[in-house]
TrEMBL record:
One of its GO terms (cellular component) is cytosol. PANTHER family: NAD(P)-LINKED OXIDOREDUCTASE SUPERFAMILY PROTEIN (PTHR43364:SF4), NADH-SPECIFIC METHYLGLYOXAL REDUCTASE-RELATED (PTHR43364). It comes from Streptomyces apricus. Transmembrane segments: none annotated. This is Aldo/keto reductase. Pfam families: Aldo_ket_red. Keywords: Oxidoreductase. It comes from the Bacteria. The lineage of its organism: Bacteria, Bacillati, Actinomycetota, Actinomycetes, Kitasatosporales.
């Protein structure tokens, strides 16, 4: 069924209405070597909002602050219609151990910096960006709740954290009457499905909307990568696409397995008369539990291409082929629990439906 950017979805267990594709703004600014200059970023913002898009993703440290500054500048005229999501916890100043991390001091300093950079009185959605394995969960939750009570953020959420910690946090927030986590931002695509083991089932059970990042595997799923890009330094392709190819190679995304998945995506795209980017995005968009994947466009042409995913309907046989080529082992205990033996000893011959 065709969707549009103004077919809004509720974010997790909240009443907040967001577009089914968010606009990632890590490409706003060129400080990281592969983004868009101001004018191009403005065009991305204008086109997305013109079509009813309202959900933006940034972080206090993206492109050294340019991402938030540009987003704030563009959103200024219609601020209250926009859902601005930002994040804290990544290091802002080397040499200062408290400028990063999930603790209160880093949280407050980062939020104040975001409010200044975004030039706004409030953030709509504040994510814990990266788990630091050091801060007590009560400190994080109570700190986030204080920010909500102060009106500095309306909702709180989390990204890049172990499923068991998020689940525990949500239970504590519920029992104490603190602001619940309403979203889980997590890497999820045809090349990154390990999120299906615990994170996505946890999010569905605990009321967090899933907001996938890197749905194109940094561009690998667009079909423009080849084995040459496994080590792009000095290659022609590496030079034409800036540092993104080097980054993707460094992240280990340009593997034989991932190139085979990209090939299968290309085949499905040609059957449908669509582009590989649209097919890969449509797969993530329509995956169970997903609220809104984040688009990472650098140009307006890429944005237009990616928005075409809203109109893609994958057939059951195409979904099955994509599922097969990208399959992962769920690992323990899921593989054991899915076995015939366990099914027999838990439900016997009875037909018992699964919850959710
Ligand atoms: N929470 C987190 O920790 C976290 C982490 C990463 C990202 N994010 C968020 O998620 C957003 C998206 O992540 P991402 O940039 O990794 O997403 P992605 O969609 O996997 O990759 C985007 C990149 O692919 C290329 N591309 C995009 N559309 C294309 C098209 N139609 N055809 C050809 N190439 C295309 C562009 O790179 P080139 O043109 O340079 O090849 C673009 O920068 C970010 O902006 C950020 O807001 C969050």
């Amino acid at each position: 069924m065709a969707l549009t950017l103004d077919t809004y979805r509720l974010l997790g267990r909240s009443g907040l209405r967001v577009s089914p594709l968010a606009l990632g703004t890590a490409t706003f600014g060129t400080e990281w070597g592969w983004g868009a200059e101001r004018d191009q970023a403005r065009k991305l913002f204008d086109r997305y909002t013109e079509l009813g898009g309202n959900f933006f993703d940034t972080a206090s440290t993206y492109t050294n602050g340019s991402s938030e500054r540009l987003l704030g500048e563009f959103a200024r005229t219609d601020r209250d219609k926009m859902v601005l999501a930002t994040k804290y916890s990544t290091l802002r100043q080397s040499g200062d151990p408290n400028s990063g991390g999930t603790h209160r001091k880093s949280m407050l300093a980062s939020v104040e910096a975001s409010l200044r950079q975004l030039n706004t009185d409030y953030i709509d959605l504040l994510y814990v960006n990266v788990w630091d394995f050091r801060t007590p969960v009560e400190e994080i939750l109570r700190g986030l709740d204080d920010l909500v009570r102060q009106g500095k953020t309306l909702y709180v959420a989390i990204s890049n954290a172990p499923a068991w910690q998020v689940s525990r946090m949500q239970a504590i927030a519920d029992l104490r009457g603190w602001s619940p986590l309403v979203a889980l931002e997590t890497e999820y695509s045809l090349i990154q499905r390990t999120t299906e083991r615990d994170l996505i089932p946890m999010a569905r059970e605990m009321g967090l909307g899933v907001v996938p990042y890197s749905p194109l595997g940094g561009g690998v799923l667009t079909g423009k990568y080849s084995r040459q890009d496994q080590n792009p330094v000095g290659s022609v392709a590496g030079e034409t696409a800036g540092n993104r190819k080097s980054l993707n190679a460094a992240l280990g995304w340009v593997t034989d397995r991932n190139l085979a998945i990209a090939e299968a995506v290309k085949e499905v795209a040609s059957e449908l008369g669509r582009t590989p980017a649209q097919v890969a995005l449509a797969w993530t968009l329509n995956a169970p539990g997903v609220t809104a994947p984040i688009i990472g466009a650098r140009t307006v042409a890429q944005l237009e291409d990616n928005l075409g995913a809203l109109q893609v309907d994958l057939t059951p046989s195409q979904l099955a082929r994509l599922d097969e080529v990208s399959a992962i082992s769920l690992g323990n205990p899921h593989d054991v629990l899915a076995s015939e033996h366990i099914r027999t000893i838990t439900t016997g011959d009875m037909k018992v439906e699964t919850l959710g």
